[in-house]
Design goal:
Elements lengths: L4 E2 L14 H27 L13 E3 L2 E6 L8 E2 L8 E3 L4 E7 L3 E7 L6 H4 L8 H4 L2 E6 L6 E5 L3 E5 L4 E2 L1 E4 L1 E2 L2 E2 L3 E6 L6 E5 L5 H4 L7 E6 L6 E8 L2 E6 L5 E6 L4 E6 L7 E7 L3 E7 L5 E6 L12 E7 L5 E10 L4 E5 L2 E5 L5 E6 L3 H9 L1
Amino acid sequence: MSEIAAAAGDGGFGPTSKQGNGGRRTATATAEAMLAMLPVFLSILLCFPTLMLHSNGEYVTQEAQFLERLHLPASGPESIAFDAAGGGPYTGISEGRILKYVNASVGFLEFAITSPNRSKELCVGNGDVALDYVCGRPFGLGFHHQTGDLYISDAYHGLMVVGPNGGVATQLANAADGVPFGFTNALDIDTNTGMVYFVDYSSHKFSASLKAHDMTGRLMKYNPESKELKVLLGGLGGAAGMAVSKDGSFILITEAITKRIRKFWMEGPKATTWEILKEFTGRPANIKRNAEGEFWVAFLVGDETGSCPSQQQSTGLRITGDGMILEAISLDTRGTISEVAVYDGKMYIGSPYLHFVDVYAWPSKSHQKEELMG
């Protein structure tokens, strides 16, 4: 299916800078309303019963080989990242911290936090989602390998960055074109240019984004040198994930509401246009590029009652930039997963709910057969 359309920004809310007392009260009421709706938002988005099959339903699912489980002090390792030296995995958790895995005996250590108002007494060990606005909720992570900086998409604090030594992250943006970010999500960095790309799940507050076919998500570009922020594409149906191609010519965006992958061209004759690359019967979550230039897509699953975590096997899909399905995998990880990240011979599994990162062997048996046949 090929539907080409010109990229367009998204209108909506006005600027939110310089508020008086009335503005602060309005902002507080809005924040409280957003927090109240978050559990419902996550339940609908992440626990909806889904299947991973593509519309033609024709491929074989391989079972991945489980290696180990990396335990965390809190839930929600939504995204996985590694630094230029191969250190990690790094991941964010629900209490607002970004952690770095050291080794089997040390485990995870604190690397950074995203909220300047965060306190250990309030946030550590407290699973109350209503505190995420204060404590922070880091979702997308990506290292700028030239500078060593870690760029972060925090659901409540927007686009952020922290230096190679960690610490308190600095906010770079919380709105674009006068429209505040509603739920800042996935992030990726073009290794060729150093440009930072990220998505906002919805430009509306949570109660509005819960409506069927909310199409206010956006894809954005941030230039670390000029500090310029630009909206590249609006009208996304639940922007759950994004990944830049190896040559930087296009970006793939997963849309959880519309259950598809959209391809946005940045170079060539189709530059600034998009097309629908793939449609699914299930809801795609994060998408990550591997070293070979292929893409791994995680799928949101839930049991028939909608409860979380699910007892279904988690699933992932390996595809090309042209949308060809190369491999489907099933994982022993039980529960909703958000990301499949492959690095240095291993596959790391992210999740918005689980208290650990599961690690599997890579390449899989099917990929080894591909290499032998090639």
